[in-house]
Specification:
The protein has 411 residues and is mainly α. The protein contains 21 helices and five strands.
């Protein structure tokens, strides 16, 4: 942090005046900025941050905006200690640390006294000069936070598809012990929020590879046993059979002796208690005769918008897309669509991953529909989530309408 302070250009108080906060930023905004970046940028403790904030609240708001004066805290260490319910020695240690980093300029009398009349106290001019660096650091941290959310969402897609593939392979009599061992070594969703970004990127890449390899194994096994491709299922078919819902926790139930994985951060499944399977059981009568969706990778690709198709193409590199490819590519578009983590997590919790993916595809595709022209994808997805929560979402009807529009466009 000494290097940061050293990069600040020296200024002449008499010819240029003191540095001030940028236009549009007031004292309280500066304090919020400092609190957001202090730990990661300056490696400050919570106690040191609180002491700085308490002192920074003393100068008048106008002092931070006037080039002819410096914001200063004239309170003695004893007063600050009393306000912070800390010892005077703790405050002295905090001030020493803040001065060493280059956030404050401490000017006192010979005996350590402070007085506004004599211009002695804790001055915040160095901190004001560091505001551009703080803003840049916050932008960097925000970008990392968005990337972490995206990686966590992507890993969630890989996990859901891998769990389903393990189930299907087990039903076909395939030994999945090696795949399960690799799966069990995956960090849970909470740990994903704490591991280093480099390790997280590598883990998500490895998870994607394992999932794709498992899906390839599943397809080959199904082809050998049934003589048909996994992608041969029709788009939409009528059925009078009860819908057999797939619970996100099904792997844990099938794998005897294996611990269940309960994760609640991001959009990861949170276990049987919150599984939509229970709701499906309660509404089984209503589901009789309902249309059952069977959407293959190529069909999902055909329903996707041109933008989403570009993301899918980047993953497939010329091969036929799978449902896994479409899912991973769709999640990659969340930041571009302006859909935040909360909106996506809510959609997954209310609708389940599969239906949330379909809702996302519909939301994105409707940006290109003239009669609808979705301007706010985040709000549109929230509306679909709300409708699903109230039991009024007609996902099948929306998919049919989207498919019809696509057919008309391709004619």
């Amino acid at each position: 942090m000494h290097s940061i302070a050293a990069r600040i250009e020296r200024y002449d108080h008499h010819t240029e005046g003191f540095p001030t906060l940028p236009n549009g930023m007031e004292r309280d905004g500066f304090i919020r900025l400092f609190e957001n970046v202090a730990a990661t940028m300056f490696n400050l403790t919570d106690a040191e941050i609180s002491t700085f904030v308490r002192m920074a609240e003393d100068p008048r708001p106008s002092d931070w905006k006037s080039p002819d004066r410096e914001p200063c805290c004239y309170r003695r260490q004893g007063e600050i200690a009393a306000r912070r319910t800390k010892s005077r020695y703790s405050i002295a240690r905090h001030e020493k640390r803040l001065a060493a980093i280059g956030l404050i300029d401490k000017r006192t009398m010979a005996h350590g006294g402070r007085s506004g009349y004599d211009g002695c106290g804790v001055f915040f001019t160095p901190a004001i000069a560091l505001v551009p660096a703080m803003l840049a650091h916050q932008q960097h941290q925000d970008a990392l936070h968005r990337e972490r959310n995206l990686l966590c969402n992507t890993r969630s897609i890989h996990k859901g598809h891998l769990k389903a593939a393990i189930n299907d392979l087990a039903d076909l009599g395939v030994d999945t012990s090696q795949i399960e061992a690799e799966y069990d070594a995956w960090p849970d969703a909470r740990k994903l929020r704490r591991i280093e970004m480099t390790d997280l990127r590598q883990h998500v890449e490895d998870a994607d590879l394992l999932t794709r390899q498992t899906l390839i194994l599943l397809e080959k096994t199904q082809n050998m046993q049934h003589g048909s491709s996994i992608d041969a299922a029709p788009f939409i078919q009528d059925t009078t059979q009860d819908f057999n819902p797939v619970c996100n926790a099904s792997v844990a139930k099938r794998r005897a002796g294996k611990p269940a994985h309960s994760e609640s951060i991001g959009s990861e499944p949170i276990g049987p208690e919150n599984c939509r399977e229970k709701d499906d059981e309660r509404s089984s009568d209503a589901r009789k005769g309902e249309i059952r969706l069977k959407l293959s990778g190529p069909i999902l690709y055909g329903l996707a918008s041109p933008d989403m198709q570009l993301y899918i193409d980047a993953r497939t590199n010329g091969r036929q897309p799978t449902e896994h490819d479409v899912s991973a590519a769709a999640v990659q578009m969340l930041p571009e669509l302006g859909i935040n983590q909360t909106a996506w997590r809510d959609a997954c919790e209310v609708m389940g991953h599969n239906d949330a993916l379909l809702a996302l595809i519909i939301t994105d595709a409707n940006r290109f529909t003239p009669e609808i022209r979705v301007q706010n994808p985040g709000g549109y997805l929230r509306g679909m989530t709300s409708a699903a929560r109230n039991g009024t979402l007609n996902l099948v009807g929306s998919l049919k309408a989207l498919a019809e529009r696509k057919d008309q466009q391709n004619r």
